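Q: what does this look like with alpha-L-arabinofuranose bound?
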Amino acid sequence: LLTIDGSKAVAMASPIHYGLMTEEINFCYDGGLYAELVRNRSFRDDPEAAVHWSEWGSAVISLDAAQPFNEAIPASLRVEAKAAGEGVTNEGYWGIPIHPATQYRASLRVKGGKDFHDTLKVSLVSNDGATVYASATTPALGEEWLAIDLVLETAADAPTTADARLQIELAKPGTCWLGFASLFPPTWNDRPNGLRKDLMQMLVDMKPKFLRFPGGNYLEGDTIETRFKWWETLGPVTERPGHPCPWGYRSSDGMGLMEFLLWCEDMGAEPVLGLYAGYSLKGDFVAPGKDLEPFVQEALDEIEYVMGPPTSKWGARRAKDGHPAPFKMRYVEIGNEDWFDKSGSYDGRFAQFYDAIKKKYPKLKCISSVGSEQPKEKWVKSRKPDVLDEHFYRRAEVFREMAKDYYDGFDRKGPEIFVGEWAAHETPFAPWEPASAKEPATPNMTAAIGDAAFMTNMERNSDIVTMQAYAPLFVNLNGRQWRPDLIGYDAVTAYGSPSYYALRMFSTNFGDEILKAELPADAKVFTSVTRRKEDGKVFVKLVNPELEPQTVTLVMKGFRSLDSTVETEVMAAGMDATNRLDQPVAVIPEVGKWEGVKRKSDYEMPAHSIVVLTFQTR
Ligand code: AHR
């Protein structure tokens, strides 16, 4: 028996409860959402070798520090062709994706040697060299750097394949230097330097209300020197040096601060900005006081870049970068997972950032990266954080336990709670355990049930759990460092895990009022109920973790009237059922109708299922 009371709301749900958390992990930006197709486009991935580039024919290629392109690209790629038609190829991020009838934009910085004042042929070619999918020819090169933009278009009957490479051939024997080489497919909203369309579509479909970036560990870096230096990620991509990412590869920083903000804008989400706070992953920290001041200033400048007026120093820089209007931002996070800082300096560091931020931006809410689930001695005590960020990577059955009442007793006077990273794993292995690397990158239905159960508790408490975000969001299946991940892909195909669909079901069916929904103590289902005030839609979430169907008797009391047709969205599947690249939609929700519904009606929940019932009430 589930009794739902519509007479009055228990509390108001946070309007920004559902959002996204992202960072550079699992080739999430480079080789993922960031649509650049050339890998190692600035030749900085390895200072010793032109990795991901190969000779074509008997050409000889090498990094040439004597011919830098600029300060950000201190070595160019020297290509010496012994015969006409030889040159260099780039393998992309596990292939260059070919799609039919598609225009690709290539952008080169290139110059010829004394022995080469001729043209280059730029092509998309199958890896066996047999098929040219598209090609274009540059003007003749001079001995000064030239910026060349080309369009390469595939034919309508081209296949969809990642078994292809970018090839650059010299028309005659001779030498040329590449200072930069980039290739973009069509992007979301046609933005230059933009985002991969299929992945963006999947995110937009979730209707996220916020985006937490740039990390995660990626914010902190392994060392202070390799933290996310936001100012180095601005401006032309040829002037961004990139930096080592703590997940074992180098980031191009093509996904820079402006790109993050435009990404938010394109999803209708607000930024939740992670500020580097003087602690890095390998344990380096900056003591509070004088030494920390430059880092606090970096953060204040970053905030000014995001939301300062165009008349301010960094607001003017934002305007120069193409966005005069300030972005709306209400939350910033001071650091990431600072409970790992053994020095005990977080309280002091938090206070120093908090005071400086509040002085300049009194309305900006400051999130502590140490959540209430951490031991008390780690908590920030000298200030009252506006929000606590809590991270849970736990087994699905632990999430089912937490679903019962985890946030029910939290003090409504605050701080607000941001569950800034969470994900259920169905395997016995935590994401950081080596055994986890042998498991599929994306989770199965057992995990999705754990996720959905936990979400019912977060939703029921979404007056205080202001925001929540699953993490990590993405995984390139060829280059992962962590599981489970919400969305998997290779160069051409992407799919959502059952957890993705669970999240999408929850986030797209969410009201602004939390309603009282009572279940007997021994009920074997989880629930949460919200109502959208403006149109009277009531969203009933139900999770059946049992391997048998269950009948739930729904009693709708305190509503003036309700329609007899209820919209249903149901995802039901066995414990191991999952989606993969080669079966991307094996487990997805089905949309339907439940007819003849009265104030008291029996609903049959399929075994092992996640259900959203949408009632039209008045
Ligand atoms: O989501 C993966 C990692 O988990 C994040 O970078 C970090 O914040 C957490 O430990």
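The mean pLDDT is 98. The longest strand covers residues 174-184.
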